[in-house]
Write a structure and sequence with these properties.
Shape: globular
Low-confidence stretches: none
Number of domains: 2
Structural class: alpha/beta
Strand content: 15-25%
CATH architecture of the largest domain: Up-down Bundle
Order of helices and strands: EEEHHEEEEHEHHHEHEEHHEHEHE
Strand order of the largest sheet: 2-1-4-5-6-7
CATH topology of the largest domain: Glutathione S-transferase Yfyf (Class Pi), Chain A, domain 2
Largest sheet: 6 strands, antiparallel
Mean pLDDT: 94
Oligomer: single chain
Number of strands: 14
Number of helices: 11
Bound molecules: adenosine-5'-diphosphate, magnesium ion
Length: 390
């Protein structure tokens, strides 16, 4: 899959600009604050239906304007042209995404149709990040290859919200007897167990499968002395020898029962996949160590870069529909955070990937990339560029 053309209207600092992109490497350079990241953000909004930086739609409307639009023309793996259009109107607070002439209303049918991987300075901190940051990263990744997972996650989240509002309501009004409250909670808990276990099993499968992809990228960047490992941390008792649905359901039910009193006291759901964590580890000479506590700055970065670059192979091999084509890769200003050796390795890896968009303030990085890329399309983003209306 390739993005051929992008048009922005009243999107952030772009009054009206159009870009034609190359199917290989698009090297976007310019001074800070000129609008490089904004271009990548617009691409992510088309592919993910939201900004990779989680910017609100309101904040994307150009100062003084009332609406923005982003239009992207894509070519997919089998030469099918598709147009995606994302529009937002501030007054009506209405957002629409059009796939061709059809308005996208069911996200589960859309997600993964335009697969995308983003690596930004924020992602480089993932190994220091919160459980939420990590769950968000992997939920988005798994959802791009599994609509079932996306659906289960959505159902699960909805039940958690309903259960939380019951718990909160009880804290405020105490209008239920303890017996009635516990009965209602156990009904929600039964539903949580069904969806929660499906999510849990998919995540465990994912970790197992992802290991090979990440190890390969890690080795290519750092040599082979370490093996990156991701462990899943949950209050649900997971016996790796017995991952049957029945035994996991029992463990999860027991946990929910044991937490019921404290959940009532605190007014919030405390156990399940929405609280779980991914632990990043490295193995050296048979010994495991926690990246968060023991890794050097450089090891942190190698861990995360290898993780993000591994997402390419994982999506490519697991894509829902083989006609979609390979994911697009966005690298937002990450070179300034890395040493030359790592940049060289990254360049040699991504040259085998699909379409790449890279932003930087330093045009000299082009020389490193030239060693791996025969052709580079360069875009100089200047203040003037963003002011013209086409
Ligand atoms: N809603 C908006 N309207 C107009 N300009 C905006 C809006 N949001 C952000 N900007 C401008 O966009 C610029 C930042 O763009 P960005 O893509 O982050 O720059 P960089 O080239 O450093 O990546 C800033 O100058 C900021 O003022
Ligand atoms: Mg930027």
């Amino acid at each position: 899959m390739f993005l051929d053309n992008l048009s922005l209207e009243n999107f952030k600092n772009y009054a009206g600009s159009s870009f034609s992109f190359s199917p290989k490497l698009n090297f976007i350079y310019g001074e800070n604050g000129n609008g490089k990241t904004n271009i990548l953000e617009a691409i992510s909004m088309l592919c993910y239906t939201r900004s990779f930086l989680l910017t609100s739609d309101n904040d994307c409307v150009k100062y003084g304007s009332s609406a923005f639009s982003i239009k992207g023309e894509f070519t997919s793996g089998i030469n099918v042209n598709s147009v995606l259009k994302y529009t937002y109107n501030k007054e009506a607070a209405s957002k629409s995404l059009f796939y061709g002439n059809e308005k996208v209303t069911r996200l589960n049918e859309f997600i993964g149709s335009f697969p995308l991987i983003v690596l930004s300075p924020g992602d480089l901190k993932l190994s220091m990040g919160t459980p939420l940051d990590k769950r968000r990263n992997f939920d988005l990744l798994i959802s791009q290859v599994s609509r079932l997972y996306f659906d289960d996650l959505k159902s699960y989240t909805k039940i958690i919200k309903q259960k939380n509002s019951l718990l909160k309501e009880n804290l405020v009004s105490r209008k239920y007897s303890s017996k009635d409250l516990k009965h209602m909670l156990s009904l929600w808990n039964d539903e949580l167990v069904g969806f929660g276990i499906k999510i849990l099993l998919r995540r465990l499968d994912f970790i197992e499968e992802f290991k090979t992809y990440q190890s390969e990228c890690f080795n290519r960047i750092a040599g082979s002395s370490y093996i990156p490992i991701i462990n899943y941390e949950s209050d649900i008792n997971i016996d790796p020898e017995n991952l049957s649905i029945e035994s996991l359901k029992n463990s999860y039910s027991e946990l929910l029962n044991s937490k019921m009193d404290i959940e009532i006291r605190r007014g919030i759901s405390l156990a399940g996949p929405h609280r779980d964590n991914y632990i990043f580890l490295m193995e050296k000479n048979g010994e495991l160590f926690d990246v968060r506590t023991f890794a050097s700055q450089g090891e942190h970065k190698t861990f995360v870069v290898s993780l993000k670059l591994a997402e390419f192979g994982f999506i490519k091999d697991n894509i829902v529909n083989s006609n979609i084509g390979d994911p697009i890769l966005l690298l937002d200003d990450i070179f300034s955070e890395l040493d030359r050796g790592r940049i060289r390795k990254i360049s040699s890896i991504i040259t085998g990937y699909n379409q790449v968009f890279l932003t930087t303030t330093d045009v000299e990085y082009m020389d490193i990339l030239k060693e791996d890329f025969d052709e580079i399309s360069a875009y100089n983003i200047t203040k003037e560029l963003t002011q013209f209306v086409n």
